[in-house]
Amino acid sequence: KMTQQMRDLQLAQARKPPGPSSPNAAKRLYRNLSGKFRVNYTSFDEGSLVGRGEKEKLRKSYLFQSNAALFEAVELQDLDRVQEMLKHYSPEELDLNTPNSEGLLPLDIAIMTNNAPIARALLLAGAKESPHFVSLESRSLHLSTLVREAEQRVNELMAQVVNEAPNADCSEKEKQLKAWEWRFRLYKRMKAGFEHARVPDAPSSVHLSVASSSSLQVTFWEPLSVNSAVVTKYKVEWSCSPTFSPLLGEAVIDKLKDLHFTIRGLVSGTAYHIRVSAYNMKGWGPPQASVPPFAIPSNWREYDGRAPRRRGQAEALDHLLGQVKTVHQHCICHEPCKNQPQSRKHSVSKSLKHLFHPGSKFLKTLKRGLYLTAIFYKDDNILVTHEDQIPVVEIDDTYSCLLMQDFLWLTKVSCMWDEILWLRQCVTVSQSSCSCILQTRFKMLLAISQMQGLLGIQDLGQVFFEPIKDKQGNILIVTLKEVKTNQTFESVRWVPICKLQTSRKSVSSPEEPTALDTLLISVQDKLAYHQRSSHALSAGLYLGYLKLCSAVDQIRVLVPEQLPNILCHVKIRSNPNISREEWEWLQKMASVDEPVPTEPEADRSQNPLFQELQVAIKELMTLVNIPLQEAKDFRLYSHEVLDFGDQVSFLLLLPPSDDVCTAPGQNNPYTPRSGFLTLPLQIFELGEET
């Protein structure tokens, strides 16, 4: 069949050109393709095409051209062109794993010409080897056939060129001869590359770690040798025996973007041995045993049989909230919360009616009092009223209570914006006590309802961690929410933030700005805080530093500006799991009151966690500007590992007990560098929960 294909190559040229007539042929083909292939097929005018069949034919034509251009770039060993095509087109658009008329794939050509950079680029894009090469013999036979038939075609064309008189046909045959001579050299180079290649060496390193009570994580690295052919896949094997007899399981990894694999479904408490082998076109190389040589699936909770701290808590709280709602719905004092007949409407006070009257509008200026403002943003735009003002409503014009307690209460309310009506009715029941606190909180709920009604939005977002105050006696509580979709609203509209800042005329002096002016000046900082506070950590085990400071009415916690919903931290490793053996070691270290590990010790050099902690502690002390010798008095929190889901866990580093919380007026000799802030503890807890 292959011989017939090569003889009928001129017919096959309708499918794929046999080769470039010059080294610039691939570049010309790619430039041609770039202008055409970027057209979106669905954007063609239906009237310009005969029908769907012709449209599909045109699409296939472009796909074929892209596939041909990729083959030419690989054959010419043009790495830049290959990378450019892989960047702009998907594997499907490039038809990456469809063989050409010679039964070869782009990856086959790259590895048999020993072009490691192009082969790696193709592998990362999802390229595969040809499935036709089921054995070394079949690959060798195929290459020999390609070389022999290419040589035969060269000889035939050479004879025709020599024997024919110069004419147009002869000129065309000379072009074909040059192309076939080039392809003959390519096939010989591929054949030589295959013959001189050898099986790969073992992976340079294999690291084994405990991922959970039923899984192990294997991380491995490429073989060090550069003399063998490109590795195209790896095999992970596991067994309960160091001789790997019997073999319990194996997995082949051909997606080489990340060289790691998690073995799942293992038995807790059982030791497993692991080894990894590499594969290239010559076959499987020798295996490399893992370090450590075996591991036992486990989790730190198995040390004392402790259940997860938060197991069932969310469900229990939802159930409790449901019970409270049920009780209030059946309370006779709570009848106003139900849909009342028209005859009961007179019971609603006028003071409540005016808040929801169509005449109720956003405020333009502030008088002395407590206010609520909602900032909704999308990209560089912000929602404003038709008067180009940030939406503001009044909470209380005679506010005189303890602000921090009411403010922290409001931050908790922000976790249930959809329940404001119910909460307002619950507070109404207790309002007869006339306490300042209840009166203020009832007014807060009224202001929230008013803001929701005017905007037509229930979810007002996250409360900024501190109110804005000015010298005129105004206090502004700010909520922030990012809008992901293109929404339109009746009472507000989108404007660019920079336009709002430049167009607003300040009514205050720079020395004593009003709360609204301060908000406009600092709005970008607040939006940045809001975005950062929603960022999540990547999977891994972290070392966190707990540092508190107290004031008259609150306790604040030190956090990084770039991730204010998490304690100051450094990453220990990518595996978040602490095994039972590692936890036992931490418990022994805590029981003898040993200092945290800051210096290497010979007898512990084989303990990976010990080494990882040394590096992490040094990095963390540098981050928070504490001399390393001071860390000798610090201690690791040994009561539990803080788990945040299945992917992130924390070990806590604590200062000496007297220094965990700095009291008002107490001097802190080690001030963190810039890039940190202190949040009220309750605000931090809410951010950490979300």
UniProtKB/TrEMBL annotation:
<dbReference type="InterPro" id="IPR013783">
    <property type="entry name" value="Ig-like_fold"/>
</dbReference>
<dbReference type="InterPro" id="IPR036770">
    <property type="entry name" value="Ankyrin_rpt-contain_sf"/>
</dbReference>
<dbReference type="GO" id="GO:0061172">
    <property type="term" value="P:regulation of establishment of bipolar cell polarity"/>
</dbReference>
<dbReference type="InterPro" id="IPR039269">
    <property type="entry name" value="ANKFN1"/>
</dbReference>
<dbReference type="InterPro" id="IPR003961">
    <property type="entry name" value="FN3_dom"/>
</dbReference>
<dbReference type="InterPro" id="IPR036116">
    <property type="entry name" value="FN3_sf"/>
</dbReference>
<dbReference type="GO" id="GO:0000132">
    <property type="term" value="P:establishment of mitotic spindle orientation"/>
</dbReference>
<dbReference type="Pfam" id="PF00041">
    <property type="entry name" value="fn3"/>
</dbReference>
<feature type="region of interest" description="Disordered">
    <location>
        <begin position="1"/>
        <end position="25"/>
    </location>
</feature>
<protein>
    <submittedName>
        <fullName>ANKF1 protein</fullName>
    </submittedName>
</protein>
<feature type="domain" description="Fibronectin type-III">
    <location>
        <begin position="202"/>
        <end position="299"/>
    </location>
</feature>
<dbReference type="GO" id="GO:0005819">
    <property type="term" value="C:spindle"/>
</dbReference>
